[in-house]
Amino acid sequence: MKTNKLTIIGVSVVALILVFSISKFFTTEKFLIIHSDDLGLSSSHNSATILAMREGLVTSASLMVPCPKRDEAIELWRENDDLDIGIHLTVTNEWENYRWGGVADPNLISSLLDDEGYMYPNCKIFLENAELDEIEIELRAQIEYVLEKGLVPTHLDAHMTCLFRGSAELLFTYLKVAQDYEILAMLPKTSFEQIKSAGYLDQLDLKYIGIIDQLYIADEQEYDKKGMEQLYIDILNEVKPGFNVLLIHTSYDDLEMKKITSDTKHWGSQWREEDLKFFTSSKTYKYIFENNIQLINWKVFRKIKELYEQ
């Protein structure tokens, strides 16, 4: 039987909305979306992510549409359509042993691809080569692919945060595409300030911008120093009032993922299984409770945002 896990720690959406409608004031609330990236990367990622959302503390995930296991992920999404799943807009391909190109016709997005027809391995090379109009073509192709399957993404976000690292024009393109499809786009507060300073806000509907006060993610040096469990305990202890997102990656440390990630010390199959174990552990609930963190997802975020703007 499916259960709609809008929060894990017992605070229902109805209760949140009721409190908000009475107080109109949430300055002391610590809202946190625990978000698993890279759905569609592998079968391992697909099954582990659904498990983490069904049985653990993960409240949201997003699909990498260019990846080889996207259709398998889409079927799992269809079978679990009450879960909070968005699109992880992907413009890079970081794995040496596991390559992908774009979703759009390669002839239309040649500036996003290397000589072999694959996406570039990092944000720096992508930003140096990609043309803005071709980026937009690819972003729209990824969204259209999901919509044509009859699925409705709860939000958009950016693989490796590449879309947040470039110019104000790139940010505007990302937000304008989200607005055109009426999908909420995750945006760090610093990026919001960037487009605000560039004068783009009068061309955008704020209803489709999901501004995040703080974006958390595991740090490689901290991981080496203290290990994954203590790293996440420290992050949960640091969560401040406002809207926060913690980005994680959930898969199994199996042969499939070992082959994909064999070229890296960090972010590999062991790292990702450690993410899975921590956020499906009963011990982790304790840190959520102790820090008075309210777990939400993008559906709830949007409801609260709508109430605030009334």
Automatic annotation (TrEMBL):
GO terms for molecular function: deacetylase activity; hydrolase activity; metal ion binding. Keywords: Carbohydrate metabolism, Hydrolase, Magnesium, Metal-binding. One of its GO terms (biological process) is carbohydrate metabolic process. Its cofactor is Mg(2+). The keyword Metal-binding applies. The keyword Ribosomal protein does not apply. Pfam families: YdjC. This is ChbG/HpnK family deacetylase.
